[in-house]
Design a protein that fits this description.
The complex is a heterodimer of chains A (160) and B (196). Chain A has helices at residues 2-31, 36-42, 69-114, 118-142. Chain A is mainly α and 160 residues long. In chain A, helix 1 (2-31) crosses helix 3 (69-114) and helix 3 (69-114) runs antiparallel to helix 4. With 196 residues, chain B is mainly α. Chain B has a single domain (11-35, 47-191), classed as Alpha Horseshoe (Serine Threonine Protein Phosphatase 5, Tetratricopeptide repeat), CATH 1.25.40.10. Chain B has 8 helices and no strands. Chain B has helices at 2-8, 12-32, 49-70, 74-85, 94-113, 117-128, 136-158, 162-188. In chain B, helix 5 packs parallel to helix 7 and helix 6 (117-128) packs antiparallel against helix 7 (136-158). The chains are: A mainly alpha (160), B mainly alpha (196). At the A-B interface, helix 1, helix 3 and helix 4 of A face helix 2, helix 7 and helix 8 of B.
Chain lengths: 160, 196
């Protein structure tokens, strides 16, 4: 029993030390430069960039220790966050584009409904042309606007 | 019962040690977390909980307005949107500006439905203060301003004020034309990461 207790205390001490070390590593990682370009610049000795026309020096194997488990985890988490942000940005961009297309379509319909003067009829035709181009653009980048306006160039105006 | 207690009594020190160990691990994990809230991104930017709370309240009020509008309670929906635009703002942030611009546009549309044309025009003006750049939100607010002018033209026409009605219609067309230009710009920016 006493030996078991001693073993458990030993395990606890090791775990505490390991966590403390990992924690320090993670804190260091968190304060490291976020942009890869900055990280690259700092990898040159003395903090200076490479000499123009000269290849960058090979990475020093002695100075570069293999990343610890905690550093790898932090790196993987940062990659995941970046990928999530990119995905969100792309879907937000298409969401905004689809809403802009819907607004453009509604405005076109209203111009054409209100147009009585020849100048306004011309404005109506111009708006229709712009709407068709906008549909092409949104279709090329986003494929479709689910539940929104049509991205088919020749769809009726209004499309819904 | 007493037997069971006796049987597990020798394990008590282990149990105490395990509890202490669990506490130690929890404290260590807590210490590893950056201070200042939830870690937002790899640069260590914390997510602003005040902004999150504002956005959550705004979403709830939009839902409330949807329910009221679906029940044909337009004044009730106006009330919900009025609450949204008067929510205390934690600080100036782009996402808050967008939410307010969007809310004012919806509020103005509801006012048009409720035949409050002048107030709708004022709400659009308030919304435009939150959308000064040529964004979707500005375009949408100008679209609603065009609707205000269109509605005004109808009222003037009914009142026999033909010239004034014609002027209001011309103004509406001009505003809708501006909407087309702005939204076209928004769509043109697609895929360039907003560099244009």
């Amino acid at each position: 029993m006493r030996r078991g207790l001693k073993g458990a205390i030993g395990i606890a001490a090791c775990l505490w030390l390991a966590l403390a070390a990992g924690c320090g590593g993670a804190a260091k990682d968190a304060s490291a430069p976020a942009s890869p370009s900055n990280a690259k610049a700092e990898s040159y000795p003395g903090g200076a960039g490479p000499t123009p026309g000269m290849p960058p020096p090979p990475p020093s194997t002695a100075a570069t220790a293999p990343p610890t488990g905690s550093a790898r985890r932090t790196e993987a988490m940062a990659d995941f966050e970046r990928a999530t942000r990119d995905l969100e940005a792309a879907s937000n961009e298409c969401g905004t584009a689809c809403r802009a297309l819907a607004s453009l379509e509604r405005a076109t319909v209203r111009i054409c409904e209100l147009a009585e003067e020849p100048a306004d009829v011309e404005r109506c035709e111009d708006a229709k042309k712009k709407l068709r181009n906008a549909r092409d653009r949104v279709r090329a980048s986003c494929n479709a606007c689910p539940g929104g306006p049509s991205v088919d160039r020749d769809a009726p105006i209004p499309s819904r | 019962m007493g037997g069971a207690v006796k049987r597990f009594a020798p394990l008590a020190p282990f149990a105490a040690l395990l509890s202490a160990l669990a506490l130690l691990v929890a404290v260590a994990i807590g210490a590893c977390r950056p201070a200042g809230g939830i870690a937002g991104d790899d640069a260590g930017t914390p997510i602003d909980t005040d902004v999150m709370a504002f956005l959550s309240a705004a979403r709830a009020l939009h839902h409330q307005a949807n329910v009221k509008e679906d029940a044909n309670d337009v004044p009730g929906a106006i009330d919900s949107m009025q609450k949204l635009v008067t929510l205390p703002q934690p600080r100036s942030a782009p996402e808050i500006e967008e939410v307010l611009a969007d809310a004012y546009a919806r509020l103005a549309e509801l006012r048009i439905k409720n035949k409050e044309i002048d107030q709708a025009g004022k709400d659009v003006e308030s919304g435009l203060l939150h959308a000064k750049e040529p964004t979707y939100f500005r375009g949408h607010l100008l679209e609603v301003r065009g609707m205000v002018e269109e509605e005004r033209a109808k009222q003037l026409e009914s009142a026999g004020k033909k010239d004034e009605a014609k002027a209001a219609r011309a103004k509406a067309i001009q505003l809708f034309d501006e909407v087309v230009q702005i939204q076209m710009k928004v769509i043109d920016k697609l895929g360039d990461g907003g560099k244009k």
